[in-house]
Here is the input.
Amino acid sequence: MKRKRTNLSLGKYPDLSLANARKTSQEARELLAHGFAPQEDRKRRQEEHKATHQHTFINVAKEWFDIKKDDITPDYAVDIWRSLELHIFPYLSEIPVKEITAPQVIELLKPIEAKGSLEAVKRLAQRLNEVMNFATNCGLVQANPLTGIKAAFKKPKKENMAALKPAELPELMSAIANASIKRTTRCLIEWQLHTMTRPSEASGTRWDEIDLEARVWTIPPARMKKGREHRIPLTDEAIAILEYLQPISGHREYVFPSDRDPLKHCNSQTANMALKRMGVANRLVSHGLRSIASTTLNEQGFEPDLIEVALAHVDKNQIRSAYNRSDILKRRRPMMSWWSNHIATAAQGSLSVTGTRQLKVISL
Here is the structure.
């Protein structure tokens, strides 16, 4: 069978000298003599060059992260990229993904394990696997070589976050009242306690998320751990905190502005650092405020479904079909009011932002 004639461009003169043109032409003839098409050989070389120079780990990681960051909170996105910058990129950034091996990565993570940072190893292994799964799905590697690397490391022991017992709530309110902390920080801790939100959700509260008339705080999906809008019914005590802060930050974007840059919100660790200064670091972390609420409400016999919704734990398809979105919000209001009243009762005798019904707001 006669092969169809094809043309092969060698390059333009004078960019390509006559000598090099003759050499390239001769190489093309030799490929043809051995049954190989010069165009296919050129394409193969271009793909090899791209695999070596373009499909490096850092380039693939950037492509993966551009997609990943849209599905997670900004704080979590920063945490992911920072961990790769600290522990991975200095060693793997310029290596083509097709050359990355499990032993290579295990050796890289072993020193981190030796320091006892087992959670860090677990997270890094997970993130590396996500990048390599992305590379596999894009056809850059035949298979993910890092699939089983977690088996090479010790498993971190699951420890519950430090949290006070419900009976210790009065002690906490007294500690907050007597602590030498900024007034906005005191408000932040109480706001997080009343709304049962996570540290990052509370610290990033925006004024435009608050509907005082409807008495609802709506956190957009981008700021939620599970990427789902979360609505919180606001109690009298929660609104009292907002009223107290209105003259301080009402003209700003964020309810709890940063001291260093008022145009940004305060750090998600602000409440945590304050609790450390109060001397309760070993007994309570800011995330543990949610645990106090959850335990107390469950002990009081409130519906488990409503408590889980208040904590933003339950997916929509897990919520009882008998309740629609409005029903859930309406049914949560009495529970949230009881919880805020319970906090106010625990704060009696202490200087609190919301205090008791007789002392809603104080001058700090």
Summary: The first strand starts at residue 210 and ends at 211. The domain at 166-346 is CATH 1.10.443.10 (hpI Integrase; Chain A). The chain has three domains: 18-53, 57-152, 166-346. The radius of gyration is 29 Å.
